[in-house]
Amino acid sequence: MTGFHQATRLQGVRYDVRGKNMVEAQAMEARGEHILKLNIGNLAPFGFATPDSVVRSVATHLPESEGYSDARGVPSARAAVAEYYQSKHLDVDPQQVLIGNGVSELISLTLSAILNHGDEVLVPAPDYPLWTAQITLCDGKAVHYLCDETRGWNPDPDDIAAHITARTKAIVLINPNNPTGAVYSADTVRAIVQLAREHDLIVLSDEIYEKIIYHGTHTYTAHETGDDVLCLTYSGLSKAYRACGFRAGWVVFTGSLQRAHNLLEGVDLLANMRMCANVPAQYAIEACLSGYQSIDELTAPGGRFEEQLRLSHDLLDQIPGVNCVPAAGALYLFPQLDPERYPITDDEDWALGLLREKKILISHGRGFNWPNPDHFRLVALPEDAVLREALGRLAEYCEETRRD
Ligand code: PLP
Question: Boundaries of each Aminotransferase class I/classII large domain copy (predicted)?
């Protein structure tokens, strides 16, 4: 008898940021070892609790949450999302909003509705790897454009233009960016949108870190796409509202909707097939967007999180051969290990060594579809004392693996 095998469509789908190193960390923890985790942007376990008022709003609405909601979401949540974007001077009606179980579900759902076999999608390198994985799963092809470390990790529009072919259907922007911490300049966003306009591409704009900004300002891609470019803007409660576990997010459809009837029917079909998003969590959306707006500790200049990012950057800066662009937004740093001094051929193995020898878990750069084994991502969520300990051990490991 033959064994049971995974479907062939999974071939080529990679999600290494939750791959073998994470499995090893779990096994080590099961043996009683204590791991310092700098690998995941999951806020609540690090003392960035979901605001009480948001938790209460879910609890209050539990009795109303027994049935399925409309597949596109509860009316109050859709209205709150529309009003939020209206307050940012974007012309959004609740009909243009779809609520989902986090941005992740909506990325999967919308790409499934958009892509045909062989369709190409331009994706940043490095990226949030769900984008590449889901495009591959939908039988499309992720074509990576490089973000330029020497320009604060802004994408290079010329490099994007060079990758456009007759099969290119869409372009993904992640702004503010995971894993680099970049906040794209308005000029960069405009230049990318202009390419989309010229080549009739759908713009897929992942703005989940929109409110977590330390330097610069956020440019809403939908502002730039106007009426003539189809734009899907994704955001949700996981990051700014520290509610990863609630699984609540939205996608907003703007721009040339009159040309997108058929596509939107496909989105509705897929939304109906999964009934609806988790109803209690949908009620948290209104609480967040129309009530609780102060996200003090996270985004306030000089607040706990910015201080931790700065500390992490300073400590990394002291390690010979480690170069790190300061983060302007989001929760991450994406430092480079100078290839002259760190002759790494497999960055996942290098990170595994760090885990086994120093009990520190980070994410290797190629897990984010970065082409070379010379970067890693660090999440600056633990408190100062833990960061100092973790980065001290990282410095030791760097010294042990460095060629001087
Ligand atoms: N997009 C980006 C850029 C992210 O970093 C994440 C999570 O880390 C997501 C989407 C997924 O968010 P959600 O928790 O809403 O599924």
Answer: 34-394
Q: What is the DSSP letter of 382?
A: S
3-state secondary structure of 285: helix
Q: How far is the C-alpha of 314 from the C-alpha of 337, rounded, in Å? A: 15
The pLDDT of 212-237, averaged and rounded, is 94
Q: Above 60 in pLDDT, residue 293?
A: no
DSSP secondary structure string for all residues of 323-353: E-PPPSBSSEE--EE-TTT---S-HHHHHHH
Closest C-alpha to 37, from 400, 373, 359, 367: 359
Residue 173 structure tokens:
């922007």
Please state, in angstroms and as integers, the Cα–Cα distance from residue 9 to each residue in 3, 13, 283, following that order: 17, 8, 36
Query: What's the pLDDT tens digit per position in 89-146?
Result: 999 999 999 999 999 999 999 999 999 999 999 999 999 999 999 999 999 999 999 9
Q: Is 349 exposed, middle or buried (0-12, 13-18, 19+ CB in 10 A)?
A: middle
Ligand 1: residue of 17, 103, 333 to mutate (most ligand atoms within 8 A of CB) is: 103
Judge whether 237 and 285 are in contact, CB under 8 Å.
yes
Any atom of ligand 1 within 6 Å of the Cβ of 244: yes
Nearest to 282 by CA among 90, 102, 105, 127: 102
Q: What is the pLDDT of residues 180-213, one digit of tens each?
A: 999 999 999 999 999 999 999 999 999 999 999 9
Q: What number is the average pLDDT over the span 208-222? A: 93
Reduced to 3 states (helix: H, G, I; strand: E, B; else coil), residue 232 is strand
Q: Is pLDDT at 266 greater than 70 in this prediction?
A: yes
Q: Which residue do the tokens 């209460």 mark?
A: 56
Residue 178 near ligand 1, beta carbon < 6 Å: yes
Domains of the chain with CATH codes: 8-49+298-401 (3.90.1150.10), 52-291 (3.40.640.10)
Is ligand 1 within 6 A of the CB of residue 128? yes
Quote the ligand 1 centre to 32 CA distance (angstroms): 30
What's the maximum distance between 2 C-alpha atoms anywhere in the chain?
64
State the Cα angle at 165 between 163 and 169, rounded to 5°: 100
- Ramachandran quadrant class, 100 (left: phi over 0; alpha: psi -120 to 50; beta: rest): beta
pLDDT at 291: 64
In whole angstroms, give the CA distance from residue 195 to residue 208: 23
Nearest atom of ligand 1 to the alpha carbon of 238: 14
